[in-house]
Amino acid sequence: MSSWFENVVTVCLIVNCLSVLLLVYRVVWGPSSADRAVAIDTIGINLIAITALVSIRLNTIDLHDVILLIGILTFIATVAIAKFLDRGVLIDRDRN
Q: Which cellular component terms (GO) are annotated to the entry (predicted)?
């Protein structure tokens, strides 16, 4: 890899890590639950980007499975949070 490309990947890693730190602040001290849910989803997207940049930096394809796993878990977490915000519970149990 050329030197300028390594520098660009490093800068992107730093920016993504700073973004995750700011999003953690939003999750902890967010003004509403919806803001917190969006921040959690965005943290997942940034983790995917960080993993992809590390994969580029290490020049390997072994982390692609990790990227897919993070994407699936982020999707499931987003659906669960949306359901909880909508209904107040995750599992509906009708006792008839």
A: plasma membrane
